[in-house]
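Worked problem 6 (solution included).
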Amino acid sequence: MSQASQLASLVAISLKPVEMVEGGMRYVHLPELKVIAAGTERVLDGLLCPGPHNGYSTRLFLSAPIPERGANWSQWQIFGRTWHTWSWQSVPAELPWIQIVLEHLRALR
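Solution. The predicted structure is:
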């Protein structure tokens, strides 16, 4: 799947996904991402790292933590902004980007 079609597929879950690079790492900014966590729908910004990041095969960062879900939340400064992520392993980088996001979000349901 081409990167353009990967990005286009994310429109189903985010307002205007945009690919970005910082420090040689590729990210996809996911504005207005709908997150269902602990039975409540929230709209947060997301930041997908579709490749390896700090020992994880992929990572999903959110603009705010969800304390009632996820484990071991940490904060990261990326693109001059504070992002939050939780410990969630084994979401392979070989999956389509939309599937990577959905697999990470599954941990918060």
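Discussion: The chain has a mean pLDDT of 94.
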